[in-house]
Amino acid sequence: MTSTSRHDPGSWLRSPWTLAVLAIAFLFFEGLLSQALAHGVAEGDKGYIQETSGFLFWPFVYLGAKHMVTGYDHLLFLFGVIFFLYRMKDISIYVTLFAIGHSSTLLLGVLTDISVSSYVVDAIIGLSVVYKALDNMGAFQRWFGFQPSTKAATLIFGLFHGFGLATKLQDFQLSPDGLIGNLIAFNIGVEAGQLLALGGILILMGFWRRSNSFWKHAYLTNVVLMTLGFILTGYQLVGLFVM
Amino acid sequence: MFNANRPARSDLPSTAQLLKSTGIAAVVASVLVVTVVMPAEYGVDPTRVGSLLGLTEMGRIKVQLAAEAEADAAADATAGSGVTVAPAVSAALAPAATATTAQAPAQAAPGARTDETILTLAPDQGAEIKLVMEEGAKARFTWTSSGGRVNYDTHADRPGVSYHGYEKGSAQEQTGELTAAFTGSHGWFWRNRTGAPVTITLRTQGAYSEVKRVV
Question: For a pLDDT cut of 90, what percent of chain A falls above it?
């Protein structure tokens, strides 16, 4: 990971654009696989939830953690938030703000049964990724001459991510039997999953931050992050009109 | 450029520390895969931790649902363009049930029939009973489970419509009236998740021409 020359044959592998292409391919195939099933019988997590009832603590902790660890929209935002953070103290402050944000709307959304179109919420989540990438690039300072509070942004976008989690849970059609307990278990799982994912991201970033390529590619990486955010937004907005 | 300043090299974790963290992460991940993910996704539980936490049941149900969906899809494919809902349509109970799914006109006078159907479900087993009805026809029903609550899915189908849902839930008994949304088969799918065999007794009365068991 020393400075890569222009003709380094392996450099394309390390290019953020390779990552972008892989991510687009992933989104595409994921979309193909998660087609609605015939016969009205849900499979997987949803099928399990519909086949059971009552308070199930650990299963819901697991589902919450799984949702976070496999939820690329949340992970991309988290990646953007910690991109320039390397002190444990800062990281924990921002992650806590994000957790407060998404926990409150997750609980509120499900308990009050507010139903927002998941496409709209997920499109906003995509825009949160775009915002954070621009923020990292210093775009707001350049364009508007000041730096909007990064903490407030993390908290506010956290609220939208929580609504995203809530619509996902509502889609599972939880039985009212044991709902509150299951909801809290799911929330605990979300936080546990977030910490696990964060651990992995921080280790990878730790290696990368030590090399010169981090600062060299920091700008481009955030451009790619922004691209992915726009893709997520487009993916959801098209869904809003097509589905 | 950027909303951050370049950190001093001494502020960053050392390579040794990062390698150690990677090792810990790999170990934690491996432990979680074996004790949590394998039970919850595939019902495979070598350490028994998944059973303790109730995750193995999740995996078991997922595997079963996936297998049933696959069988269902295969049956649909052989039956040609999803004409029949049920996979093993071949007359588990009713002898002449299969072919005449949609059109069973003018056999019984409306409101004339009364039937009692009894079936036993082993743990995890599912069953489906359908009434053949004309659009707008009504049938009163009562079903009870001898054991605890069973999951039910009241729905309908006809050639070209593989699923039309009326109601889903979990109950020990139910009484109500079915109004056929279209000419086709209307009825109940039950699943026994109680862990012990249950007997379901279904009483129906109304305007239908046939009671058939499809699963």
Answer: 51
Query: Which long-range contacts does A120-123 make (Cβ < 8 Å, 24+ apart)?
Result: A120/A236, A120/A240, A121/A160, A121/A163, A121/A164, A121/A167, A122/A73, A122/A164, A122/A232, A122/A236, A123/A232, A123/A233, A123/A236, A123/A237, A123/A240
- Give me chain B's average pLDDT, please: 80
d(CA A111, CA A194): 22
Name the CATH superfamily, with its identifier, for domain B88-103+112-213: Mitogen Ypm (2.60.120.510)
ipTM over 0.85: no
Contacts of A135 in chain B (CB under 8 A): 3
Interface A-B: count of C-beta contacts within 8 A: 120
Residue position matching structure tokens 């949304």: B181
Q: Give the mutation candidate from A33, A35, A39 for the B interface (greatest B CB count, under 10 A).
A: A39
Amino acid at A43: E
Residue A141 distance to chain B (closest CA, Å)? 8
Q: So where are chain A's domains? A: 56-242
Domains of chain B: which residue ranges?
12-65, 88-103+112-213
Residue with tokens 């109730």: B54
* B22–chain A Cβ distance below 8 A for any pair: yes
B3 neighbors A136 (Cβ within 8 angstroms):
yes
